[in-house]
């Protein structure tokens, strides 16, 4: 205790965080780094593997059907008009010339005060391994004045002799480089996590998903953090997982961390709780807005309240898709082939345009920006165009019908049967349980969007309202606590985290929409979104680092040998208990 009274926080982070790796996996990106660091690495959570199959799939994903049905299209148009009435802009099919609202035009150079840096076009990834012999041959040819001829000869050999010893394709490519591979290259892109769950489907089997997770994490640890496999027994791992993960998925990730990556010990924390600690809060309504999933959960005195959890199946990438649809509908998008599903590099471009230009504010909002086209192996083309209705796509968070959901096939139900339930007897509350069914059969859980329709684990968790917008989800989550004093405190302690939280104008929009959503019979008249103390993108990771450093007892940590030998039964048969979603045991200082 004397040490804690005298130690400087920076010294504590440096001493106890130098051998603690914090891993915060997401659907689109993974945030990973040493707890002693100020910010983590933020790397695209994907992998591209070289393939010789013909025909090949450029992207191996659950996005098997990206077409919009007639009913969905009508609902989207209706949602657009509803948003237009709120923002005081023309309706979808109304001529701009007929409206009487003042027109707000962005500067012609596409400048905005939040992002003044000029963004160049993305370059295609070099998919060939570097060959020392070929580089030396280039140097000798330069001496003879024939460097250009030699380079052209090498390119010809790359296309004609793919299997030659001199010019080989890289076997695997990770992160953003994997997303920038040309569709003409013989690679298949995989994303092991999709919409907050392991991306298991008939086209992407469980074993391959887990192998890809291991490969990505091992690459980052070795090449980016410079922690080789032989030294990892000197490091511990903090796994900060989304609320959407179920116990089977968490166990598989723990096995990767302890068995395959060979960390000495590990612990699991929930993302919402970590976010609260990352901002120095003990009580808050945490709204995590990621690339593909938005989740809401309330934290009271350092403990999450599982009955308050709400999961909405949309995020930043859906806003990017809506951005593209809006521009095409208004015929402002250039005549280029932009396909964010088949060409991940287009998704990178759309995300960047969305972050640069989209914001929530009243009045018509246009700007002039540069759109890039990426065709096969050709250099990127630049197109200067007028971008319109830039305040509509982010409003889809409140009107989700604007963000037409992707159609997903159900995962294999048998995979989610957990015969060693890690959550058994750890939370003494009554939740609706899945009815007993014959082997191999599960009741249909068709709620909300057609995603994970037969996901049996949802039946054992609090019901999620997946068809509602963000304001309704926040209001419902807080009101479900049932205590007026806590409700008032939570409505004044809303915390927005994740990349979408950086959207300009989102904070006042959330405050206004939530206040109008609260029923009139509730004695609540104040809603406040707290200003973040750290970058909202990394606050969950930072909170995990703080929790790991301050956990001096480490009673809930799992040691590698115990996990490999006994699985969830640690030591003398004691089950790994902490909370409903496997957040780590509350530490003594939480309630102090």
UniProtKB/TrEMBL annotation:
Residues 102-163 are annotated as: Disordered. Residues 116-132 have a biased composition (Basic and acidic residues). Transmembrane segments: none annotated. Pfam families: Actin. InterPro entries: Actin (IPR004000), ATPase_NBD (IPR043129). Gene3D superfamilies: 3.30.420.40, Actin, Chain A, domain 4. PANTHER family: ACTIN (PTHR11937). Belongs to the actin family. ARP8 subfamily. This is Actin-related protein 9.
């Amino acid at each position: 205790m004397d040490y804690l009274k005298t130690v400087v926080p920076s010294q504590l982070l440096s001493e106890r965080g130098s051998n603690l790796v914090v891993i915060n996996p997401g659907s689109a990106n993974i945030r990973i780094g040493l707890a002693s660091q100020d910010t983590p690495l933020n790397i695209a959570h994907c992998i591209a593997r070289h393939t010789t199959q013909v025909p090949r799939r450029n992207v191996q994903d659950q996005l098997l059907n990206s077409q919009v049905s007639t009913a969905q299209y009508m609902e989207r148009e209706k949602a657009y008009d509803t948003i237009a009435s709120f923002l005081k802009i023309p309706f979808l099919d109304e001529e701009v010339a007929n409206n009487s609202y003042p027109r707000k035009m962005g500067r012609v150079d596409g400048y905005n005060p939040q992002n003044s840096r000029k963004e160049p076009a993305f370059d295609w990834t070099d998919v060939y391994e570097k060959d020392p012999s070929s580089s030396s041959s280039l140097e000798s040819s330069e001496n003879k004045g024939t460097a250009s001829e030699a380079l052209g000869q090498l390119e010809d050999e790359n296309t004609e002799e793919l299997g030659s010893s001199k010019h080989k394709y890289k076997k695997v490519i990770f992160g953003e480089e994997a997303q920038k591979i040309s569709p003409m290259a013989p690679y298949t892109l995989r994303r092991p996590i999709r919409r907050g769950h392991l991306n298991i489907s008939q086209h992407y089997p469980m074993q391959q998903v887990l192998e890809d997770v291991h490969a990505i994490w091992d690459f980052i640890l070795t090449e980016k953090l410079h922690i080789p496999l032989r030294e990892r027994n000197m490091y511990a791992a903090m796994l900060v997982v989304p609320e959407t993960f179920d116990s089977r998925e968490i166990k598989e990730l723990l096995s990767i961390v302890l068995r395959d990556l060979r960390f000495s010990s590990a612990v699991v924390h929930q993302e919402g709780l970590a976010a609260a600690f990352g901002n120095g809060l003990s009580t808050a309504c945490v709204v995590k807005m990621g690339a593909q999933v938005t989740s809401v959960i309330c934290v009271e005195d350092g403990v999450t309240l599982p009955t308050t959890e709400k999961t909405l199946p949309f995020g930043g990438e859906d806003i990017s898709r809506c951005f593209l649809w809006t521009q095409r509908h208004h015929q402002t998008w250039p005549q280029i082939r932009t396909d964010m599903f088949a060409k991940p590099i287009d998704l990178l471009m759309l995300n960047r345009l969305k972050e640069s230009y989209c914001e929530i504010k009243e009045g018509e909002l246009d700007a002039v920006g540069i759109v890039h086209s990426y065709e096969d192996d050709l250099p990127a083309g630049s197109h200067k165009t007028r971008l319109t209705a830039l305040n509509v796509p982010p409003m889809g968070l409140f009107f989700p019908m604007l963000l037409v959901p992707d159609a997903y096939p159900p995962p294999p139900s048998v995979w989610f049967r957990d015969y060693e339930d890690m959550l058994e007897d750890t939370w003494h509350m009554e939740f609706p349980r899945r009815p007993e069914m014959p082997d191999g059969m599960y009741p249909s859980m068709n709620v909300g969007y057609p995603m994970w329709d037969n996901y049996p684990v949802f039946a054992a968790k609090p019901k999620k309202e997946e068809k509602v917008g963000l304001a309704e989800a926040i209001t419902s989550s807080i009101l479900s606590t049932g205590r007026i004093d806590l409700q008032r405190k939570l409505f004044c302690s809303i915390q927005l985290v994740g990349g979408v939280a950086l959207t300009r104008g989102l904070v006042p929009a959330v405050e206004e929409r939530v206040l109008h959503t609260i029923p009139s019979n509730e004695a609540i008249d104040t809603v406040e979104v707290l200003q973040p103390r750290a970058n909202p993108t990394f606050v969950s990771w930072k909170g995990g680092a703080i929790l790991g450093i301050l956990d001096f007892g480490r009673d809930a940590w799992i040691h590698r040998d115990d996990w490999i030998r006994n699985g969830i039964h640690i030591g003398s048969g004691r089950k790994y208990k902490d909370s409903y979603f496997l957040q780590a045991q509350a530490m003594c200082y939480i309630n102090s």
